Fold this sequence. Notes:
Blueprint: E1 2-9, H1 20-32, E2 37-43, H2 52-62, E3 66-71, H3 74-77, H4 81-93, E4 97-100, E5 105-106, H5 110-143, H6 162-173, H7 178-185, H8 189-199
Parallel strand pairs: 1-2, 1-3, 3-4
Antiparallel strand pairs: 4-5
Helix pairs in contact: 4-5, 5-7, 6-7, 6-8, 7-8
Amino acid sequence: MATGIYARVSSRKQDQASQLPDLQRYAKALALEGEPVEWYRDKVTGKTMDRPGWKQLEQAMRAGQVNRIVVWRLDRLGRTASGLAVLFDELVARKISLVSIRDGFDLSTPAGRMMAGVLASLAQYETEVRGERTVAGQALARAKGIHMGRPAGRHTPIKVTPEHRKAIGDMHAAHWAKSAIARATGLSRGTVYSVLRETGPPAVTMTRAMTSFD
């Protein structure tokens, strides 16, 4: 049987470069021990388990071709506690190990199963918070008179207005992730970064808001 290494990003605009070094090192270590490795990849949201790469890995798992699944971090596997909990139960029943490199756990141990449950809940929490922050940011942008979304013509650039700059500065000072600022203002992440480079770092605050990952 083989080890299935699974890498996922949320969209085609992202790449798997941040995950690959750790995953490749793990694969190399297995190869030195003579263990076969199969790679599976997806570019789709983690809010659903219905993904082409994951479906292939799932089929291999159920056919008895995989005895271990390796991911860079648990949220690469999925971002719903219910979906992950069902998966954990199936893996335990089939005696298939799940290793999360960055989270540092192995599902084959009791401590690993406990940690996996906690991290699954945390992944869903982060997804829900990100959604709430986006909605709040859009409301803030509308209140400042900022037009949401792109104008007619998908590739038409959006002019960065003083209101945009003020909203970006306010959100950055509150430690919003750049991706969340981009979604809230309707601008690209590149534009958000450009505005922040022009305006400089935000003033230091005494408390830091909880943020989602970029």
